Amino acid sequence: MRPEDNLPDFHQRLLAWFAENQRTYPWRYIDNPFHLLMSELMLRRTRADQVVAVYRNFVAKYPDAVTLASADADTVATDLYSLGLAWRIPAFQQLVHTLVTEFDGIVPDDYKALTSLPGVGDYVASAICSFAFGQPIAVIDTNTVRIIGRLYGIEVHAESRRKKDVRQRIQGVMNPDEPALHNFAMLDLAALVCTPSAPACDACPLQDYCAYGRA
Fold first, then answer.
1. Residues 6 or more apart from 82 whose CB is under 8 A from it?
2. What is the C-alpha separation between 78 and 100, in angstroms, rounded?
3. Catalytic residue selected from 40, 102, 155, 178
4. Which residue of 108, 112, 139, 205 has the fewest C-beta atoms within 10 A of its own C-beta?
């Protein structure tokens, strides 16, 4: 059985699992697009648990784009220092400058406009559209690609996120009624159950729909 054979049941199983097993982070379930955007930039190539304290302090100190754009660059660098990856510093500054000068400090709710921002690519734009604005756009990264590869029994790798057929399959299982919860659930399932090695298939709510799990 494939997901599209019974998408309502597929969605119900995934969200029921998520309700019981979700990871809790301060950037989830907030209605501030700027804070969400900051969290997504911080999370790149960094473990979520490492980001929590930095994120909390950062958004308290810089609650909006205008405040951050006017901040001293060295102070911002110090505030982000513990996350490593020094490239983040100019990326943050370039992004907020563009937000202030071209979007009046407001995070746009349009995918194309988001990708026009410095440092914002497909994943971050999709995440903001989904998490901040409730749009039914799938977040696509190595984790969600791994899940879709196992569900359909197709070979995938890191660059498969760029393949049209893989992207279509991930978007095809999207829950249009609960897009943010669906995307969070997919990410948590990949982190807790559908791991790169030794996945816990017996604990997976989607095993009946999964070619890998059934095998």
1. 50, 54
2. 22
3. 40
4. 112
